[in-house]
Amino acid sequence: xxxxxxxxxxxxxxxxxxxxxxLFAYPTGELAKKxxxxxxxxxxxxxxxxxxxxxxxxxxxRDVRDVMKIDPAALEPAxxxxxxxxxxxxxVSGYAVRVKEDREGSxxxxxxxxxxxxxxxFSVCRTYPHTLRWARDASGNPSWALFSRPGLHGFLHQDxxxxxxxxxxxxxxxxxxxxxxHQIEFLESVHDYFSEHHLMHDxxxxxxxxxxxxxGEEVMIRVFSFGDWAHYRIRKGSxxxxxxxx
Length: 246
Ligand code: SF4
Fold this sequence. Notes:
Radius of gyration: 19 Å
Strand content: 15-25%
Shape: globular
Helix content: 25-40%
Number of domains: 1
Largest sheet: 5 strands, mixed
Number of strands: 12
Bound molecules: iron/sulfur cluster
Order of helices and strands: HHEHEEEEEEHEEHHEEE
Number of helices: 6
Distance between the termini: 25 Å
């Protein structure tokens, strides 16, 4: 099946598997040392929790379960569906936290610049801005990206305890592993689904339906979560509770 980005799905799965192996091989102690050297502390300005800094908060399945308990209206399909079939149904890898319609594009849970569910915040919120991604650096060479948007938020070079750094390093590796694994399962599932139903990915239709969605028109979308597909008719900005599940 041709894939979005023009790389066949099986190659994308293989690349992700290699990425996961590299992640496992990265020594946790070394990551903890780098976290200590960075010495990042959150300044509680709330900017990272808005679209000014981050496009969206992607939710792992365990986070989706938590949102369902806290406030199901905060759930929406993650932006950027990757596939579209010939009937115009979009396919996206999971859910994100809904963004408010305010000027900053604040997270649904941001109240007076503070996270209103801080003790129950989601997986990525617990490790951000630390990361462990194999990516291209400014010169185009592949290397590890360890920190997201340096210099744009928080305090740096603060004193952090050894245990805190180790715990963070474990959390970062665990989160990145869960994210890659989710993406692999999404690609496998979409590949199987298209094969079983004799569907073809249609890149032109993907762009067309995505544009319609961004313009506020109703679209059909399948969201991958808990190893299965939920099928919705949805408009941009409508909460999960307002989605018509088919
Ligand atoms: S859940 Fe809390 S920490 Fe996470 S983005 Fe929203 S406001 Fe920020």
